[in-house]
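Lab channel / #folding
Pinned by the channel admin:
"Please post every new chain as: sequence first, then the structure tokens as a reply. Keep commentary short and put observations after the output so the thread stays searchable."

First post following the new format, from NK:
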Amino acid sequence: MQTYTLALALWIIAPYSISMALACKVNVTIDDTFGDERTGQVPIYTSATAWGESAPVCRCDMNPDPAQMHNQTWHVHESRPGQIPANITFTFRVVANARMTILSPDTRLAFYLDGDLYSPTTFFQAPSNDTTGEGYNYNQLVFSNTSLPHGKRTMLMSSLTTSDSGSIVLFDYAVYT
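Reply from TO:
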């Protein structure tokens, strides 16, 4: 009789356990070089001048620590004052999301979610937490939205420039849930 009771209890609990397990949220990383670990889709980089990959292409003094990077890779772009912005675009299927990047002292970004400028509209570099003295902030949250409806989304991160100031973007990875 105890075996029957135990089997019945497991039969009643099992559907709830399975549905709870299927509802677990999982973080998915979009690496700057290798792309979305779930879909394989890589970010699209556009600009008037070339993006650099994992090397100080634009300025000889840009040397972030590869050991601090996801997969030891990153993309870098320096937009000069008045230059057309550099953009990073990627798509993802999401319930909640967060964007991460490496920051240099001259980072200025705008975010467009599904084609709409997202408010707050800009991100400016915070004081550095870098202990090497090079001025980089690693693994920084630059965009977060935990109230997005489930579905396919497109994010465009754009460097902000004015006639007086440029922007340096070092992109490492993005995370969505």
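NK: The CA atoms of residues 43 and 90 lie 5 Å apart.
TO: also worth noting, The first strand starts at residue 28 and ends at 31.
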